[in-house]
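Two proteins, back to back. First:
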Amino acid sequence: MDKKDTKYVDLNITLSAVGKAVFVNFYYDFKNAALSNNEIAEKLLRENPGSKSDNQNFRIPRARHIFSENNQLDALRIIIDSKKVAPEARDKAKQILEEELAQMHNSQENVDERVFIEDLNRSIIYSDQAQFEYNNIPEPRKETRTTKTSLYQRSKEVSSNALMKAGFLCEVDAEHPVFIRKHSNENYTEPHHLVPLFAQNDFPDINLDREQNVVSLCSHCHNLLHYGSDIDEVLYKLYMSRKELLKLIGIEISYEELKKYYL
C-alpha cells in the first residue's frame, strides 16, 4: 500500500474507489483471507464482464484495506445511507450488516457463557438442593447492563435450577457420558440458554433468563451447538422438547427463527 495514496486516507474515498455495489456484492470474497487477489480478480471479471481488468489492481487492495482496518461495518452503514446506491445493493448491505452483528453478538455470548459457567462451578454445590418445579408465569425482561462477566444478566439460581430439573443429565441423550463434579456427587453438565440472551431485543417484554429456556448439556453437545458445522439434529431435538414450555412463559419462536441465532 502506498501511504501517499489519498484513496486510503478516508473511508468514504476508499469505498468510492472500490465501488459501493462491488464492495457489497463481493463482501465475503474480500473478507476471505484464503482467497488471493488474483482469484478475486478473476471472479470479479467473470461476474462483471464489463469491468476493466486493470481496475482490479487498485480496487481489491483498497477493499481489503477496509477489512484490515476493521472498518467493514462502517462501510456497510455508509452504503445503506447512500441514496446514490441501487436499492438492491443497499438491501444486501443491510442483510450483511445484520448477519455480521448477529455473529459478533454470538461470539460474545459464547465468551460470556463460559465465564459464567466457570463462576457457577466455583460457587454452587448441588447435592443439598431440593427438587425444583417450573413457575410458568411470564416475567418482564431484565434490565440489560454490563457487568464484570456479561452484558446480559444471568442468574446462577436459574441455571442451577435448570441443571437440577434435568437430573444433571444431558437433555439431548441421558445416556451421554458425563463425569462427577469436584466437591459434589452430582454429574457435570453445563447450562445453555436455548434462545440466546443476545436475542433479548427480539423479545422486548419477556425475560429470557428462565429455567424453561435453560437446557442441561454434556460438554460435547454444548460445544457442538457453539462450534459444530451440523447442529440440526441436536438443536431440533432440544427445540421440540422445550417448545411448549417456552410458550408458557411468553417465548414464541419457530425452529427456523431459533436456528438463525446459531448461524
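And the second protein:
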Amino acid sequence: MTTTTRRRVHADLAHHHPRVTRLARGGWTWECNCGGASARAAAAPLTWHQAFIGALIHSASIAP
C-alpha cells in the first residue's frame, strides 16, 4: 500500500506574482493582483518577450 502526502501550498505574500496574457486585439500584457500592469498602448502592442521581461522585473520587487 502506498501512502501519498499532500503538499501544503503556502502563498508567497512577500513577492508579486504577475500573469502574462494575450490580448484579444493582438499583443501581450502582464497584470498583477497588486494593481500593477503593463501599459496598454494600442499604437505599440508588446511582444511576448517584452511583457515577460516586464513581469519579471515587477515580480522582483517586494509587495507592500
